[in-house]
């Protein structure tokens, strides 16, 4: 299923522009809620797993939308053939056209084999899960021992980008499910500090290194893995001990073998698993070790149930489609420059960082799948921090700044750590912030709060006005369990897919990460040679910086 369109050529695009100009820009949420007491019921959806405890309520009523806008947004989705593109993706069509690959992270969690996606390797998903189960059980139970016979106490996942962010985010978000006497470290940065700090907390006799790299050629990961091996061998001495302490997660068996990893210690996945969609694959091995295989399976099943929802719910009730199209409404018609994800759950502190990669690497594209340069904005700039920390840092700008920043607020109904009044206080903030953003404070109200003397102080009155009409979605999860987290991640993955379908960009390649890597490889020899007078052939800025570095570095 390919589509030729520029999004701006779709009939509903110009209608949306008109709707924005005639009413969207002036949309008043106070009036909208007054006019329709059932607005919340109308513009909210519940998602409940049938075989898991996944449970989400998504309230999108505090958006600058009405029935006509919503209908037109969904028309746009239909004109862009979102349903057909989704079905093609699920079936295993090579929708990643630039790389000639299917996009089948949904097949990794299709444990009930509902979608029957077709691609080489789909039938190996379950055996590979068995492999993950066996290894994670062995590490957790203590039956997998280190070379000196001791039980494993630490795991170090060495990987970057998609081979790091997913497992890191999930193991943090699901920390209450973690095995208590097992430390998990995640090393990604080439900055030696990252590895050095992790190793300081580890003992070579009781540490397993998980080398996670789809390509197994990524400079940071291979360099870190080699340094970890050197560190290990300094104590272990004998290379034959490596097999008990190093495993590889990769699609590249050849490179992993060349690194010295035993076939038995390789966990494979397939080229139809994109790095930023890979936590469901062998890349999730550290998740299974930390929270146990049964919980890992719940994560997969929760995501699968959301996959079913995305596949089967009519667009009007389809949560990823609603969030994606409402996002396009602001990104393309209100010129919103960014979008914030604000989890009111301390354990979810890496959630926005995770979706920064998933969304921005997927949708940061400037050409359509047919190679036409787009004449509209694509990927949202995604950012965020957990509430309430964010409130005391950047919310000022969201409330009263000059930029429109649509936000998603996410919170669990049940906390993992009941502690006095804490959760009610947290949730009171979760409810209050979207309310303040939507309804603001008028000049009259601001004036009413001032002393008689200050009521003529126009600066004070103006400064205390909250314009309101700042759009938000509020997502209430019953509890951040493995299945609910799986569903939540899948929800946002599919939001990305839908936006990619509508903008007609390939959300599954990442050529933008290449150029800098190539240039770094060219620069490295000059740094190793160390002659400040020979920085290489560059512009004066780059040469000047390299020379300055070489002149001033010490202790090399
Ligand atoms: O898993 P490997 O192959 O090491 O890639 C790690 C990361 O590299 C980056 O440059 C991107 O391409 C990411 O999508 C990818 O997740």
From TrEMBL:
InterPro entries, per the entry: G6P_Isomerase, G6P_Isomerase_C, Phosphoglucose_isomerase_CS, SIS_dom_sf, SIS_PGI_1, SIS_PGI_2
UniProt keyword terms in alphabetical order: Gluconeogenesis, Glycolysis, Isomerase
A Gene Ontology biological process term: glucose 6-phosphate metabolic process
Gene3D superfamilies according to UniProt: 1.10.1390.10, Glucose-6-phosphate isomerase like protein, domain 1 (3.40.50.10490)
Species this protein is from: Ceraceosorus guamensis
Pathway: Carbohydrate degradation; glycolysis; D-glyceraldehyde 3-phosphate and glycerone phosphate from D-glucose: step 2/4
Function per UniProt: In the cytoplasm, catalyzes the conversion of glucose-6-phosphate to fructose-6-phosphate, the second step in glycolysis, and the reverse reaction during gluconeogenesis.
Superkingdom to which the source organism belongs: Eukaryota
GO molecular function annotations of the record: carbohydrate derivative binding; glucose-6-phosphate isomerase activity; monosaccharide binding
Stored CDD domains: SIS_PGI_1, SIS_PGI_2
Protein name, UniProt field: Glucose-6-phosphate isomerase
Family, similarity comment: Belongs to the GPI family.
GO cellular component, one term: cytosol
Reaction(s) the record says it catalyses: alpha-D-glucose 6-phosphate = beta-D-fructose 6-phosphate
Entry's EC annotation: 5.3.1.9
Enzyme class: isomerase
